[in-house]
Amino acid sequence: MIKINVLIVNNNWKKNIKNPNLYLKRKVKKIEEQISFFRKRNYLTASILLAGDKEIKDLNKKFRKKNKTTDVLSFPFYERETLNKLIKKSSDIYLGDIIINFSKIIRKKDNSNFLLDFDRIWVHGLAHLLGHRHKSNRDYSVMKKIENKILKAIN
């Protein structure tokens, strides 16, 4: 099972997603129904912070030493190897935090579907929390397959 805690620090989000908690709860239910990994006995929890340029820039500067905005930040609680061991043993696992920048989604040139862009970003963040990276082409390919599988399940 997956539980997503949603925190909103930028009220512009509510213009495009009236109830982000309910929206994500419905998406997570679809993931659990269609992807066996998420149906295991584990109780996976993550937090999503719905932010804007200022908040994400401050966090990016503080934690990554980059004084710029970005679309998403992910802060996994565990490294991949540790997480894999915990999933086999533990029943309650905190995956980490995802911060999403409203302004970056709105400013996209092909911003034809806000919710689809939002889904792509939070799923990308979730893949990071599950221990995936995209430093090499191989890593990127594996991560992209996982993201596409989740996106197919929710859309």
Give the CATH architecture.
3-Layer(aba) Sandwich
Total discrete domains: 1
As residue ranges, the low-confidence spans are none
Spatial extent as radius of gyration: 15 Å
- Give the mean pLDDT: 90
The arrangement of helices and strands along the chain is: EHHEHEHEHHH
What is the distance, rounded to the nearest whole angstrom, between the alpha carbons of the first and last residues? Answer: 19 Å
Structure summary, number of beta strands = 4
Instruction: Determine and state the CATH class.
Output: Alpha Beta
Category from helices, strands and their pairing: alpha/beta
Instruction: Please report which band the strand proportion falls in: under 5%, 5-15%, 15-25%, 25-35%, 35-45% or over 45%.
Output: 15-25%
CATH superfamily membership, which one?
Answer: Metalloproteases ("zincins"), catalytic domain
The number of helical runs is 7
Q: Using the alpha-carbon principal axes, give the shape.
A: globular
Say what the CATH topology is: Collagenase (Catalytic Domain)
Largest sheet: 4 strands, mixed
- Share of helix among residues? 40-55%
Task: Offer a quick outline of the entry.
This protein is α/β, with parallel strands linked by helices. Helices cover 52% and strands 20% of the residues. The protein has a single domain (2-154), classed as 3-Layer(aba) Sandwich (Collagenase (Catalytic Domain)).
